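Encode chain A's predicted structure.
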Amino acid sequence: MLTDAAIARFRAKLHGDLIQPGDPRYNEARKIFNAAIDKRPALVVRCADAADVIAAVTLARDSNVPAAVRGGGHGVTGNALCDDGLVIDLSQMKRVRLDPGNRTARAEGGATWGDFDRETQAFGLATTGGIVPSTGVAGLTLGGGIGYLNRKYGLACDNLLSADVVTADGRLLNVTAQENADLLWALRGGGGNFGVVTSSEYQTHPVGPVLAGEVIYPLDQAKQVLRFYRDWSATAADEVRADATLLSGPEGPALDVILCYCGAIEEGGKALRPMRSCGSPIADSVAPVPYATVQNLLIDVFQPGRLHYWKAGFVQRLSDGAIEALVDFFAADVPGFFAAVAIEHLGGAVSRVAPQDSAFGHRDALHSLLVLRMWQDPADSEKNIEWARRCYRAAEPFLKGAYVNYLGDEGDARIKAAYGDNYERLRIIKAKYDPANFFRLNQNIKPASDGEKS
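Encoded structure for chain A:
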């Protein structure tokens, strides 16, 4: 347990800040993106540097209390917090350093994609990142990292070059392709199972203005448009990312297709024209815009303080049966604000990495499908969660596997489904770097036993 004496010794050497129950900042410190999460940690450690992280890991380990790691705090399951334990809060460690000559950027563990994009776009550079600016850089990467640039430049984890990681025994490891290479492989999609990432280095790419925006269709055109979208998106150029979403927003239900072309604007016009000409859209905002504009398209929807419930899986091919089932369910049971079935565009560069070359192995999926329900009144939680579960059941026969960053509290079988054939290798690496499963507040990979390592 955490003793007063141990906390006092820890506080004396802490460079950052320590927040406990009774502190006027406590309730604010335990807020995260998903307001459905209500946990009460014993300590929130706002770390200033890697030395603070090492000290916090040591305190939690020696006191035998759970430790949660908070980067952006965007995880829907609330693993960034814990009850009665210690939160290693990296939110003050937000610096992003760019090396324009080598086109690399290093982000501290609390940096968000908004922080990252501001720094890199000042030099006309970017890498695949989260489509909501408040998402943490490290957290998104550790789960794989889907984003608007993924078909051209791969997932966020495919662009991860190196990382500094504090392990369960309090060591700070430099992780590269040459040093601790097995751990780099695991960080590329293996979640927060292996340590605290205090900084991560990325390959960046030239990204200037993009051709991007939304094409919105009435719900009665959804089946026709989704069938066209399915066929067109399967053969689109790598520069194209197209996400099709059945949604119920403030203005009622619709099909919203977000398009982004990260290349020459003239070529983008030709590439996107077939999708923009499909059906009879009620709105089309596609235009040349700064990359930051498309990265901020969803900022008004994904505001902090709302309650969330998500369920998701991967789609090898969006069949006619899947389209019929999803649209029929959505049209028959139109929810209020806000519900969505988001079909995210994969393939391209994502598919050209072998499944065994990173912990993220779902390289054959052409789309990711996310059922998302969002609401504001806690009294409405039960009915909203039930709607999301029924919607997911309509989609489930057409899905395979799971995306770690969208996975809820769904049990060991779903965690194994997220890693597929890579799961046993991850267990062996977990046993090497965290044999006691200290880092367990995550989509947990249990360490292999001695007999299983051979």
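The chain has three domains: 4-89, 96-206, 210-406.
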